[in-house]
Design goal:
ADP-ribosylglycohydrolase fold; binds magnesium ion
Length: 337
């Protein structure tokens, strides 16, 4: 029996490991991956960004989302929709600052005293941050589902919201996951894919299997305007998973993962067809699409299924900011108490 602590720690750690496995091949086609790394592609930790095993923007942002949830919990705001979202937005603004950028939002100058991640030098590294995340947070106003900032459906929303599903004090993970993504991504497929991921993670923590979790999240998804594209992507993943051996070529029929619904679909597919967490992550990064983001999202899901014990120890050991990630997982679990 895998306990809650194992699943929460597993989800954040495996997400970071998947992100780091995908980092060296994010912008390579499948053929280029094979030319550079052999016919099996990436099989374990490789250096990137001058580090032995570097996380990228996906994990950096995920950590700031986790910090925002911890601060909202400490402020007693997790059940207060507008207050919690403002706290989470300020956590995003601190991520923006860590990237050396500034914002025209009025709270930008006043958000630095909250939180502690901004003090970590290691997070002040640019690891190919997404344009929409940067520009959305530079806006003088906060993006919401009702008043979107843009029409982007990039995967920058879904890749960072896992902590929303893992924070048990959040009673409406689908809604908050979608709202957090909509801070930067205004297209329904950009934020509903994120809500879906948060809802799936919550079901997995309760011990549901992934197909059950998807069925429940699909029901919730269907109630949101503009859900059709995300619904279709998830259904394609479920049906492809029941249809033959997993291969990168088959995976690539789900898309390139640069957009939210495809990244979600590919991550779900990788977990559904794999025997263990190691196999999930290798499948999730060895394809021509956005490898670090699919590695991160598939890791978030697989870690909640198999727990931290499912991650090969020699993949955790060299992981950049490993101690900070584990500490945040504990804080997310306890609400920062
Ligand atoms: Mg990245």
């Amino acid at each position: 029996m895998i306990d809650l602590e194992e699943r929460i720690r597993g989800s954040l750690l495996a997400g970071a490991v998947g992100d780091a496995l995908g980092a060296p091949v994010e912008f390579l086609s499948l053929k280029e991956i094979h030319d550079r790394h052999g016919s099996r592609g990436v099989t374990g930790p490789l250096p990137s960004y001058g580090q032995p095993f570097a996380i990228t923007d996906d994990t950096q942002m995920t950590l700031f989302v986790a910090e925002g949830l911890v601060l909202a919990s400490r402020a007693g705001a997790l059940q207060k929709p507008s207050e919690r979202l403002r706290i989470l937005h300020r956590a995003h603004l601190r991520w923006l600052r860590s990237q050396g950028a500034s914002s025209r939002h009025p709270t930008f100058g006043r958000c630095e005293d909250e939180g502690w991640l901004i003090g970590l030098e290691e997070l002040h590294q640019r690891r190919a941050p997404g344009h929409t995340c940067l520009s959305g947070l530079q806006s003088p106003r906060m993006g919401t589902i009702e008043e979107p900032l843009n029409t982007s459906k990039g995967c920058g929303g879904v890749m960072r919201v896992a902590p929303v599903g893992l924070a048990l004090g959040v009673q409406d993970p689908f809604r908050l996951g979608a709202e957090v993504a909509a801070l930067t991504h205004g297209h329904p497929s950009g934020y509903l894919s994120a809500g879906f991921l948060a809802a799936v993670l919550r079901s997995l923590l309760a011990g549901d299997d992934l197909r059950q979790a998807c069925t429940a999240a699909l029901e919730e998804l269907a109630r949101w305007p503009g859900h059709e594209e995300t619904t279709e992507a998830v259904r394609s993943a479920l049906s492809l998973a029941g249809n033959g051996e997993p291969t990168p070529e088959r995976l690539e029929t789900l898309g390139g993962a640069w957009v939210g619904e495809e990244a979600l679909a590919i991550a779900l597919y990788c977990v559904l067809v794999s025997e263990n967490l190691e196999a999930v992550l290798l499948l999730a990064v060895n394809h021509g699409g956005d490898s670090d983001s699919t590695g991160a999202i598939a890791g978030n899901i697989a870690g909640a299924v198999w727990g931290a014990g499912g991650i090969p120890a020699n993949w955790i050991e060299p992981l950049e900011l490993r101690d900070e990630i584990e500490k945040l997982a504990e804080l997310v679990r306890t609400g920062g108490a």
